[in-house]
């Protein structure tokens, strides 16, 4: 009985030929079969490129001359005004924390620490904490350290993060001022700082918007 040739060929399929794996499975050459080979003139970066990557800075870019001059003039003007107010109300020790606040408002106006809620609320809350600690523990460096820690925690709970305000609490403990006079001197000063920040942002069209939020 004869068999049709196409049928016979269809029933006999040639299996693909596999080459034996001659790569070593153990020893120094094991596992290198699929490793990419470095090309001449390419491949891994050189030593200079690696050094550049390691030493590259992620710091913000330098401001342009106009932006730097604007910030310098704004901060200097408001600080001179604060010095005059401090001398008039005999509270010059408030200048350091308020100077730090002015620097935040004018240099990083988008940060939560620089927003009006944090500036005004942070300073007033920390001043209250400092005055309370002074009334309970008296005036000492130990009490000032306790006041700074409590002030920071209070600001975090109140969602008014503002690190310079912790210095306000320390000043309230070490100086021991009359509470009413201290708060009455502080409130207009922080309002002045916020107002100066808003005005400076309006005067220069290319300046970052301030505030990012009020409350």
Principal-axes geometry comes out as: globular
Number of strands: 0
How confident overall, as mean pLDDT? 81
Pick out the low-confidence regions. 5-9
Q: What is the straight-line distance between the termini?
A: 98 Å
Largest sheet: none
Helix/strand order: HHHHHHHH
User: How many whole angstroms does the radius of gyration measure?
Assistant: 34 Å
Helical content band: 55-70%
- Approximate strand percentage: under 5%
Q: Structural class, please?
A: mainly alpha
Tell me what the structure shows:
With 215 residues, this protein is mostly helical. It is 61% helix and 0% strand. It has helices spanning 5-11, 47-55, 65-89, 95-107, 116-137, 141-158, 164-175, 179-203. Helix 5 packs antiparallel against helix 6. The longest helix has 25 residues, at 65-89. The chain is globular, with a radius of gyration of 34 Å. Residues 5-9 have low confidence and may be disordered.
């Amino acid at each position: 009985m004869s068999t049709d040739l196409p049928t016979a060929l269809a029933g006999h399929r040639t299996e693909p030929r596999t080459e034996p794996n001659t790569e070593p499975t153990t020893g120094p050459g094991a596992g290198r079969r699929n490793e990419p080979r470095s090309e001449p003139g390419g491949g891994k970066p050189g030593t200079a490129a690696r050094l550049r990557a390691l030493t590259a800075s992620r710091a913000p870019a330098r401001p342009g001359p106009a932006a730097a001059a604007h910030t310098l003039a704004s901060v200097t003007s408001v600080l001179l005004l604060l010095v005059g107010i401090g001398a008039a109300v005999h509270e010059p020790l408030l200048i350091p924390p308020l100077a730090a606040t002015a620097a935040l408002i004018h240099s990083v106006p988008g940060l939560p620490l620089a927003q009006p809620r944090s500036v005004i609320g942070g300073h007033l809350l920390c001043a209250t904490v400092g005055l309370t600690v002074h009334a309970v523990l008296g005036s000492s460096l130990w009490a000032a350290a306790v006041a700074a820690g409590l002030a920071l925690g209070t600001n975090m709970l109140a969602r008014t993060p503002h690190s310079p305000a912790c210095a306000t609490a320390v000043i309230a403990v070490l100086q021991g001022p009359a509470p009413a006079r201290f708060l009455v001197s502080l409130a207009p000063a922080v309002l002045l700082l916020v107002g100066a920040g808003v005005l400076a942002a309006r005067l220069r069209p290319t300046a970052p918007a301030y505030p990012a939020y009020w409350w």
